[in-house]
Amino acid sequence: MTVVGSAAHRIRPAALGWPIAAVLAVAGLTALGWLAIGGGTTDQAEIARTLRESALTVESHAAAMERTGDLILTRARALPRSPAVDEALSYGEHLRSDAGMLRALSRSLSEAAAVTLFDPVHRSRPDVAAISARWEHLRADGRATAEHGRLMIQYARSVGPALSSLAILSAAELAELERGASTMVDAGDRAIAAAGALSSTVDQMQRWLGRY
Asked: How far apart are CA 48 and CA 191, in angstroms?
């Protein structure tokens, strides 16, 4: 069985440390022509709602991973040491470690929702480069979320039989972990789609501004 605590599989939210203020501050006085033609048709409120839901999904999964990690560690430590038990301990530590990273990712998605609702593209004199970079960070966060979910599904299926044989996790507990990972994939894919829609709005504005 593969040890799953590898640093290569750690998620790295692209937008961590990106301050909302830096994005909100890009708004000055409006490109009146852009507003006059009603630039962009993206439903900012709907996208913000989607991002908030994704953030909540990630936060919920983080809490579930932390609980499961604690449960695995408690039960595995009560068993005689063996390679299988050692791997179970590594898996439990991996879940706890990634829970913290997922919480950071959840905060990043929440920040993206706040920026989206502020709708910087339709504010005056928007810094197009800064806004475009923000949505690229969002796209990367979405990919990290979805990829994490896929990895966790693989982990649950690969480590699951050993955990069950050691009576560390029941079949129902493993199934719940896999369902939570599946929701992560969905949340990540929705964040990627949201980033695409927001980027399209920025592209429309750039094309319009390029005419003048």
From this structure: 10
DSSP state of 70: H
User: What residues form DSSP beta bridges with 124?
Assistant: 28, 29
Amino acid at 118: F
Q: Could you give the C-alpha distances from 184 to 68, 152, 167, in angstroms and in order?
A: 16, 9, 26
How open is the CA angle 175-182-45, to the nearest 5 degrees?
140
pTM to 2 decimals? 0.65
Going from the C-alpha of 122 to that of each of 30, 125, 126, 196, the distances in angstroms are 7, 9, 7, 17
Higher pLDDT, 212 or 72: 72
Task: Give the contacts of 193 (CB within 8 A, at least 6 positions apart).
Answer: 142
Query: Length of the chain, please?
Result: 212
More confident call, 153 vs 121? 153
